Amino acid sequence: MTQELWTEVDRYITDLLVPADPLLDEALQASDAAGLPPHNVSPNQGKLLMLLALIHKARTILEIGTLGGYSTIWLARALPTDGCLITLESNPQHAEVARENINRAGLAHLVEVRVGRAIETLPQLANEGYNPFDLIFIDADKPSNPEYFAWALKLSRRGSLIIADNVVRNGSVIETNSDDPSVQGVRRFNELLASEPRVSATAIQTVGSKGYDGFAIALVTSDN
Question: What is the DSSP letter of 174?
């Protein structure tokens, strides 16, 4: 099993089940042209996020980590016409690229991009009295995952879905003594999932064009 094979299989799946979409392609091209890192979810992962939001009938979505807005577009496409998605991005340049991509996709009326460190903007959301979100997607700096999970719980309700990307780290997640802050952040996050009585959670390993990693999915089973 090789990265080349994983990528070929991803291409096969994408060609078959995720038809070419000029707006999504333009979002990736604009992000690349602006020098953003290539950390977007893959097309088939993006469609998975959209399907999960549709299955869950999400009306309100919180995304922690916008980058160029690629996953934002996928998630926003699952919303009803009166839905709302708030996405948090620490880098102003990334946020500007994301806004342009979201506008081009015709979703600006559903999406609000907030600029600032998520660890600072999340408390602001709580203070503003937002209703609990139906779905929360965590895909930002991994050392802060434990804090993001704590805020996700505060901003959710029974029945909310919390999804986190990059929880396997090319298998490094099993390295107890890793000196990689991202690995340790993900390990602490996974341990919190395991010990939190208010959620029922699992994680899956994934391989594909983005390498070897995984998603964690948690259903909030009781109110805070």
Answer: G
Which residues lie closer than 8 Å to 187 by C-beta, 6 or more apart? Answer: 173, 176, 178
Most distant CA atoms of the chain, gap in Å: 49
pLDDT, average across residues 153-174: 96
Q: Is the dihedral of CA 38, 206, 198, 144 positive or negative?
A: negative
Residue 147, C-beta contacts closer than 8 angstroms, at least 6 positions apart: 119
Residue range 3-220 forms a domain whose CATH class is: alpha beta
* Contact call for residues 184 and 143 (beta carbons, < 8 A): yes
Question: Which helix (H) or strand (E) covers residue 175, if one does?
Answer: none
**8-state DSSP, 116:** S
Q: Which two three-digit tokens encode residue 40?
A: 């977007």
What pairing do the DSSP bridges indicate for beta strands 60-64 and 135-138?
parallel
pLDDT of 224 over the 90 cut:
no
Tokens for 97, please give them.
Answer: 């690229």
Torsion of CA 85, 183, 191, 38, to 10 degrees: 20
CB within 8 Å of 62: residues ≥ 6 apart: 85, 86, 87, 88, 125, 133, 135, 136, 137, 152, 155
pTM: 0.96
